[in-house]
Every structure is written in C-alpha cells, then in structure tokens.
Amino acid sequence: MESEWDPLRALGAVTAVCLLLWAAWGVGCTVYVYLLPQVRRGAPWLRAHGAWAVVTGATSGIGRAYAHELARRGLNIVLISRNLSKLKLEAEEIERLHGRVTRVIQADFTGGLEIYEAIETGLKDLEIGVLVNNVGMLYTKKPSKLLDCENVAKRLSDLINCNIMSVAQMTAIVLPQMVSRSKGIIINVSSILGKKPNPLFSAYSASKAFVRSFSQAVGAEYFAEGVLVQTVNPCLVESNMTAGTKYQMAVMNSEDYARQALDTLGLTSQTSGCLSHAVQSFLLAVFQPNWFSLSRWGIKLSYLLLKPSN
Ligand SMILES: NC(=O)c1ccc[n+]([C@@H]2O[C@H](COP(=O)([O-])OP(=O)(O)OC[C@H]3O[C@@H](n4cnc5c(N)ncnc54)[C@H](OP(=O)(O)O)[C@@H]3O)[C@@H](O)[C@H]2O)c1
Ligand SMILES: *[C@@H]1O[C@H](CO)[C@@H](O)[C@H](O)[C@H]1NC(C)=O
Ligand SMILES: *[C@@H]1O[C@H](CO)[C@@H](O)[C@H](O)[C@H]1NC(C)=O
Ligand SMILES: *[C@@H]1O[C@H](CO)[C@@H](O)[C@H](O)[C@H]1NC(C)=O
C-alpha cells in the first residue's frame, strides 16, 4: 500500500531528473568546449577558410592579441584602427614575430557610412577567411547614469557607430566572398555586459546585446552556406579599457585569452572565451538576476562595487 501512486511525488521526481539532466548538460558542454584538447580544430582547419584574417581595433588589448594569435596560426593579417603609426608598428611586429604578410587600413569607426568605401577598397583582392569584429568603446571611463556624462549626443552617436554599425558594415563587406567560397569565419566580440541590461553601462550593454543578437541570427542565415559565426563574451581582459579597474586579480592576460578563445572556434557559437570567464558568467547570472540588478538596491550595489578605488 506504500507503493500507491502519488502525483506530487512523481512531479518531484520528474523535476529532479530534469534539473540533473540540465546540470549534466551544462557541465558536459563546458568540459567539451574548454577542457578537451582532442576536439580542437587546429591551425590547418583555420587556414583552410582563407589566407587572410581581418581584425578591427587591432593595435591594443583583445584585438591585438587576436591578430598575433591568428598570425601565429598561419594567417596573414589586415589590421584596422585609427592611429597609423600604431598600426605600422604593430604590423611590423607581426611580420617580425610570426613571418606573415600584413596590411594596414586606417579608419575611425565612430564615423558613419562614408568610412566603409575605403575599407572595402583596401580589402578588395584578398581572400578573407576570418573576420574579427573587435573594435568597441565605452562612453565613459567611470560607470555612470546616461545623463551624467558630458556631451551625451556625440558620445551616443560615436558608441553606436563604433560598436554596432562597424559590426554590421564589416560583415556586409566580407560576407559575399565567404558565401561564394562556402567558407568563412566571423567572430564578433560582445561582452558579458551584453548578456542582460546593465544599469550604469546602459548604452554600452545594449550595443553588445545587438552584437549578440545580430550574430546569432546572421549565423543561422548563413550556416548552410558554410559561414561560421561566433560571439565571444569576455569578462575582464587586460587592455586600456580595464586598466583602471580595481579588480585586477580578475583581469585575464590578453594573449592567453585570445589563444583560448580561438581554441573554441568550431565547437560553439557562443563562448565566454575561457573556462574562468564561463564560470564567472554563470555565477553572475545566478547571483545577479535581472529583478535584483534592475532594482533600486541593485543599482546602489553596482555603484558601490564599480566605483573607482581612488
Ligand atoms: N577588455 C575587456 O575586459 C573587455 C570585456 C568585454 C568586452 N570587451 C570588448 O572587447 C573589444 C576590445 O576591447 P579592448 O578592451 O581590447 O579595447 P582597447 O584596449 O581599448 O583597444 C581598442 C582598439 O580599438 C582601436 N580603436 C578604438 N577606437 C576606435 C575607433 N573609433 N576607430 C577605429 N579603431 C578604434 C584602438 O586603436 P586606435 O587607438 O589606434 O584606434 C585599439 O586598437 C571591445 O569591443 C570591447 O567592448 C572588452
Ligand atoms: C598615435 O600613437 C602614437 C604612439 O602611441 C602617439 O604618440 C600619437 O600621438 C598617436 N597619434 C594620434 C593622432 O593619436
Ligand atoms: C556578427 O556576426 C554576424 C554574422 O555574420 C554579422 O552579420 C554581424 O554583423 C556581426 N556583428 C554583430 C554585431 O552581430
Ligand atoms: C594602451 O594604449 C597604449 C597607447 O595607445 C598602448 O601602447 C598600450 O599597449 C595599450 N595597453 C594595452 C594593455 O593594450
């Protein structure tokens, strides 16, 4: 008579099994993507997509690290950013260290449609296998409410052009030849801040959400035509953007970051880039749910946590 069917108990058992399966799936995916060297695609696979890689914002931080790592894996590199002397210096460094050919294109991505003609011309005759949409900016160094930064109109226009327009336009320039060869990889650098709305970084975090959403949709559109799209969501990586942060111990070396993030190519279309950032991202989602981070107390806590230390 103890074995009488109890609907509540059955419901509990089903829920427990579902939770266990969900957790096992998460752990399994994490191990597969970050911890199993055997499943990695390797440099020959990367080179088979085309001889050249294009990196926007390539002279410092994450973009610079991607450029070096892609060259080390045997691709020629096109570097794009604002400062010509920095570009030339970095290009020479890549040629010297990795023995690849480079090309530089000077462009300021805070500009509008007018800057892309020169970029298109600069890329015309190249077989581009990999595009890294990396360039991006914050609109203030300090976390602040929208109206608390100077010259809001100009800053918003710069941010939207640099973080959103650049990604869409660069993709539109490079995609046709990838589709015609049925081969190509597009990497969009988003951010952990793009995973949900973030008060005190509102426009930045929304611009990164665009990157993620756009990447996923375009990735689905062109998957059947051989183009692979990956969105990378870093937490803190060593760069000028994070130079002032008080959480220096959480900041990852940019070369290690780019190497590990490139190792996940072909294994997943969404990645935190490395195991430690995947763990941080998971913890943040659990302990910073929207109902809290968007509440009055959540914003107070953010101010406290993100306030510069000096
Ligand atoms: N660092 C992090 O912890 C972190 C975390 C999450 C996401 N991200 C994202 O990762 C990407 C790279 O960030 P980062 O920290 O490596 O940046 P960074 O160190 O500030 O480097 C920015 C790069 O972009 C170029 N650049 C900046 N503004 C430009 C513009 N208007 N036009 C053309 N080039 C420009 C810079 O060169 P010039 O000065 O010569 O133009 C430089 O090469 C960004 O999209 C950022 O949002 C970074
Ligand atoms: C370009 O970078 C160099 C070296 O970092 C710097 O000295 C120079 O002022 C920069 N030029 C511009 C126009 O920002
Ligand atoms: C990311 O990748 C997709 C796929 O090609 C591309 O269309 C998009 O412009 C890129 N950038 C963003 C922000 O998604
Ligand atoms: C920060 O910018 C300076 C000047 O542009 C550059 O020389 C330096 O390498 C950058 N730092 C990082 C960590 O990328």
From TrEMBL:
User: What GO molecular function terms would the record report?
Assistant: estradiol 17-beta-dehydrogenase [NAD(P)+] activity
Give the InterPro entries listed for this entry: NAD(P)-bd_dom_sf (IPR036291), Sc_DH/Rdtase_CS (IPR020904), SDR_fam (IPR002347), VLCFA-Steroid_DH (IPR051019)
Q: Name one GO cellular component term.
A: endoplasmic reticulum
Top-level enzyme category: oxidoreductase
* Compartment(s) of residence: Endoplasmic reticulum
Q: Where is it chiefly localized? A: endoplasmic reticulum
Claim: Heme is one of the keywords in the record: no
GO BP terms: namely:
steroid biosynthetic process
Q: What is its EC number?
A: 1.1.1.62
For this UniProt record, give its keywords in alphabetical order, as a comma-separated list: Lipid biosynthesis, Lipid metabolism, NADP, Oxidoreductase, Steroid biosynthesis
Instruction: State the PROSITE patterns in the record.
Output: ADH_SHORT
Q: Which family does it belong to?
A: Belongs to the short-chain dehydrogenases/reductases (SDR) family. 17-beta-HSD 3 subfamily.
Could you tell me what this protein is called? 17beta-estradiol 17-dehydrogenase
- Organism, by scientific name, is Phyllostomus discolor (pale spear-nosed bat)
